[in-house]
Design a protein that fits this description.
Number of strands: 18
CATH superfamily of the largest domain: Zn peptidases
CATH architecture of the largest domain: 3-Layer(aba) Sandwich
CATH topology of the largest domain: Aminopeptidase
Structural class: alpha/beta
Shape: elongated
Largest sheet: 9 strands, mixed
Distance between the termini: 24 Å
Radius of gyration: 24 Å
Length: 488
């Protein structure tokens, strides 16, 4: 994994830090923290002079370099002081990391921008630094293409916040790697191996059902989608029991399509390579469980990942086929490229039947329609429990991972009803495609179980770049939001 791994806290004076770069923050009202004032005095007022000349304005993500003996001083714009918070700290930390990498500076240090070194702020800053330092370099062989950030030091930060931020950001980077690997590397077997490592680290129970087993169990959706590929599919179940077993678990279900050609309803060739990212829902679930394995919270969580490729081999399922999901409902297949909802139907049915969960969250790169609606800025959400949705929105505010609720009205649910089966796997033509996906999935969640669906097709990769997200490739989006939501 190519991201900074050595993160430490220091109470030494900033002049004693050995890092090649020290960063301070500047608000757009031109105010500096006490440390920033000290730095400016050591520079004989160069920062203040640059402000007076209009070369430094303190706008968010703005940067300027100064020099103090053999140390670079980086001034990072923090934007409006009234709006400053954890997200601004993440952005500032990512800005420092990316600036250092662009200038091939291997060690960095910085104040806790804004001067408030609470655990929440220190965590956000460390998340920004680590996530901003991430690069996917596994297939680079020329040395000129490879430079990584080696060490970051936080001045007078919170040890607890730094530690937690380090764990969570490391996990996100790990999942970015898993998602960025091509489909011939990240296979269903690879996802099962990742789950095995999590189980061993966290003392969890792992069950992996193979093709013959889950087919015999009645998982008609996963069996059908997997019928066109020789790559062994998996139905992966991870159970973490950190509390009394009479306490209801939270259930997480992630779409694990490790490559999606569209099946017989084949996709256009352009950008089909990006369909290696169709397992990013599984990435969210594995990322959350990685963090749980490290932090070991007092709660119960069940994670389920149905995983396969969707190809067009000789045994591939066809438009017009009728399938039976794990909960017994029948599905009319009208488009084999609407396959994610078919495998999720079995996953949602499974957790509903066997665990009586407190609530269920599912994650999927489900529809291109969500990109039409929300672009690459926000994840589309919908569900059955208003209180749970409000908690999701609160977690979104805390982590900076934007979500937008779409309606799941009865009119939309009617559109996925089939004339010859219980439901069909697409809704009304050219209408509300993202909502139709949610309406379909709702049919496979047990009655009275609170549930929220996350369509991450616009945010899992190719999203608008932030200082702490990569220019291209997987983002690891929503892992931090879910951890905040469930209280890890």
């Amino acid at each position: 994994m190519a991201h900074v791994k050595a993160i430490s806290n220091s109470t030494e004076p900033w002049t004693s830090l050995s890092a090649n770069l020290f960063a301070i923050g500047l608000f757009d009202d031109h105010s500096l923290t006490d440390v920033g004032v000290e730095v400016d005095q050591a520079l004989n007022g160069q920062i203040r002079h640059a402000i007076e000349l209009g070369d430094l304005k303190g706008k968010a993500d703005e940067t300027a370099l100064f020099y103090y003996h053999d140390k670079r001083i980086l001034v990072v714009g923090l934007g409006e002081k009234e709006k400053f918070g954890p997200e601004a700290l993440r952005r500032a930390g990512g800005t420092v990391a990316k600036t250092a990498i662009s200038k091939k500076i291997g060690t960095i240090s910085m104040e806790v921008f804004g001067g408030n070194n609470s655990a929440v702020n220190s965590q956000a800053l460390v998340e920004g630094v680590i996530l901003g330092s991430y690069q996917f370099l596994d297939y680079k062989t020329r040395e000129d293409d490879i430079f990584t950030l080696e060490e970051a030091v936080i001045l007078n930060g919170s040890e607890d916040g730094i530690g937690k931020g380090h764990i969570i950001a490391d996990v996100v980077c790990r999942i970015r790697d898993l998602e960025n690997h091509p489909g011939n590397v990240t296979t269903p077997t690879k996802l099962a191996e990742e789950a095995k490592q999590i189980a061993e680290e966290g003392g969890m129970k792992l069950t992996v059902y193979e093709r013959e087993e889950f087919t015999a169990m009645g998982m008609g959706g996963l069996a059908a989608v997997a019928s066109g590929t020789e790559e062994p599919p998996k139905f992966i179940v991870l159970e973490y029991w950190g509390d009394r077993q009479d306490q209801k678990p939270v259930a997480l279900v992630g779409k694990g399509l490790t490559f999606d050609s569209g099946g017989l309803s084949i996709k256009p060739a352009s950008k089909m390579d990006e369909m290696k990212f169709d397992m990013c829902g599984a990435g969210v679930v594995l990322g959350v469980m990685h963090a749980v394995a490290a932090i070991k919270p007092k709660m119960n969580i069940v994670a389920v990942i149905p995983s396969t490729e969707n190809l067009s081999g000789g045994k591939a399922y066809k438009p017009g086929d009728i399938l039976k999901a794990y909960n017994g409902k029948t599905i009319e297949v009208l488009n084999t490229d609407a396959e994610g909802r078919l495998i999720l139907a079995d996953g949602l049915s499974y957790v509903s039947k066997h665990y009586d969960p407190e609530y269920v969250l599912d994650f999927a790169t489900l529809t291109g329609a969500v990109i039409t609606a929300l672009g690459h800025v926000a994840t589309g959400i919908m569900g059955t429990d208003p209180a749970l949705i409000e908690r999701v929105k609160a977690a979104s505010e805390a982590t900076g991972e934007k979500v937008w609720e779409l309606p799941l009205w009865e009119e939309y649910c009617e559109q996925v009803k089939s004339k010859i089966a219980d439901v069909k796997n697409i809704g009304a033509p050219r209408q509300a495609g993202t909502i139709a996906g949610g309406a379909f999935l709702k049919e496979f969640v047990g009655e009275d179980i609170p549930w929220v669906h996350f369509d991450i097709a616009g945010t899992a990769w190719g999203s608008k770049e932030k200082p702490y997200t990569p220019k291209r490739g997987a983002t690891g989006e929503l892992i931090r939001l879910v951890l905040n939501l469930i209280g890890v």
